[in-house]
Amino acid sequence: MEVIKTTEIAHALYRAHGDKAEWEAAQREMQLRDAGDQSQAATWRAIRGNLRRLRGANQS
């Protein structure tokens, strides 16, 4: 998935779930990894990274 799309998803998750958004993304990543879908798990890992950066920017 392209970088812009993962960033958009991260922003939408943050708006919907606030500080719990990273937890939501981690759960999705774990489910996909456990199901053997490494590609989608990697996408959700990237979304989690975007959420961390987003949270850091909002705490300044």
Topology:
Blueprint: H1 3-17, H2 21-34, H3 38-59
List the keywords.
0% strand; 60 residues; 3 helices; mainly alpha
Plain-language structure description:
With 60 residues, the protein is mostly helical. The chain is built from 3 helices and no strands. It has helices at 3-17, 21-34, 38-59. The N and C termini lie far apart (29 Å). The mean pLDDT is 93.
Please outline what is shown here.
This protein has 60 residues and is mostly helical.
Total helical segments = 3
Characterize the overall form. globular
The radius of gyration over CA amounts to 11 Å
| Low-pLDDT runs | none
